Fold these 3 entries.
Entry 1:
Amino acid sequence: MTTTTDTDTLLERIALLERRVAELENHPAQGIEDRVALVVFSGDLDKAIAAFIIATGAASMGLEVSMFFTFWGLSAVKKQKIFNGKDLLEQGFTAMLPGKLGDTGLSQMNFFGAGAQIIRSLMKKHDVSSPEELFALAQELGVRMVVCDMSRELLGVKDAELVDGLELGGVATFLGDAARAKVTLFI
């Protein structure tokens, strides 16, 4: 009798597990897709390089990639500084912040810009694409690049200061991408 009870218990457990597996197969993680969502918060050269390497690597693997540039990360998607048409505070931010990716420094050991030049030299020596080349590759691979509209307004960044082909959006835009992503990173 013990054998029958043990067999019945085991069969019940197997049936329960099969039902649970079927439920999970029918309702996988809601909306998770083959995508990567990045928040680019830092305006440091080394962090921008990392963000673009991850973005281009993921895109080349067939993942959909979105990059959300906010606050100091806007430096990675600017092409120039514009002072006209800005109030005093906005002009101050413009003066203090890099005007484009090529003007950004390192987060560590920047040494008044010498560190950034050394990293760029080492990248060239080792045939690593420059940050500007990585940015262009990201665009070519279809990486979605969204500029935080709130950060742009707070820092007084005009549309004409931004690289062409970028989207403007808010936190809801990023969260919509992140909610469906397998990987979400904050850089």
Note: Residues 2-26 form the longest helix (25 residues).
Entry 2:
Amino acid sequence: MALAQLIKPSRQLFIYSHFYFYGDAADATIAKNIADDITCHWNEPNASIQYKQDWYKLVFDIKAVYNPQLKPEEVWYNTDPKLFFFRIEEYSPLDVSFVDGIGSNTGLFKVANLLQTSTTAAHEYGHMLGLYHPKNLDIRGKGIPGMMYPRGTICDPHFQYDPNAAAGVTGGTLDPRHRKVLLHDIELLKLHKLRFNEKGFAVLGDFTSIYHPNYQSFK
């Protein structure tokens, strides 16, 4: 989910995503690092989008704050499509970071994933914008892996955890730090199909509005 704004005079298309982080493993530094990582990765292609007859420079506007006092009601009843709410913990019930659905605005980050690679948040952000994992997970010979390829993807040796490992065995799959947002990832967002209102705004995705508890206490 996100809020899009088409600014015709300056020929810019903004995607606004403002994160609120909570949880025992969250803090202001992690919040800033996540925002910086997503901003860097998704603006790296320096993409432009054709909307009707004109071209617009695409800008991802990512902000993040740490809010340890966040109340469940603030998540449940939020009506602002640019707001995202993520818990950050050492423990995840799925053992990985996750979003609450494709095109969602809530989820949970496992702190070990965030520390392991800067692409974790950027990958999950792609899901929030409506992107799925690609169906073909053997991309040998196809170059740099796009941002939406998951762990376990078969890739060229120099993109593996261990370049000397055989494909598919331990060490012989995609090391997520090599993922990049490619123009193809941007194209899959289909931003040219958005319907903007009279003020130039449109919404990607929908509200999931799930406040996550600390699942460690349920173990």
Note: Strands lie at 2-7, 12-22, 48-51, 54-66, 83-89, 98-99, 106-110, 201-204.
Entry 3:
Amino acid sequence: MRIKLWLWIGGSVLLLALLFIGFQQWGRVTTSAESLSRNEAKDLVEKRYKGEITNIEQKDDKYVIEMDRNQIIYEIKLNAFNGEVLSFSKIGSKKEEQEQEPFEEGQPDQENQQELGEAGSGTKVILSESAAKEIALKEVDGIVDDIDLETSDDLMYYLVEIETADDREAVVEIHASTGKVLSISFDD
């Protein structure tokens, strides 16, 4: 009878120890991550894009950052928790502001980016999401489901997910600076 009592006590202690360890592990997983500070977000963007930050605001779980790169103003949306770039888009030009000339609608964004690249600054120029979307749709017919700007070993590229008419999903990988299609893969 005493053996059964000791087995129950030992089993209970073991169960409590396992529950304690489980709650500690579960607690670590469910705690909310700390967001980047304003200075950390600023440093991250300045190092990544080599420009001057003119404005930075935190809205909910992202930072909205304005950057001046060679007289062109860009808006960068950055995930406040992991530093992932959510979007990178051109919003204006200091040259345009100074000259007060209206923007010509027939002039594509890529021409402005090409001029920036030829300026000899050595900085990388990023295609807009809409330009990447157009390139992807020339390769695969369908509807764009999602588009993400990714970075891997100093290579920036867009991953464009496209739903095709035959219910397949294509993922088109596009070089963010040159617009070259790097790969196309299909999921069933």
Note: The chain has two domains: 38-118, 129-187.
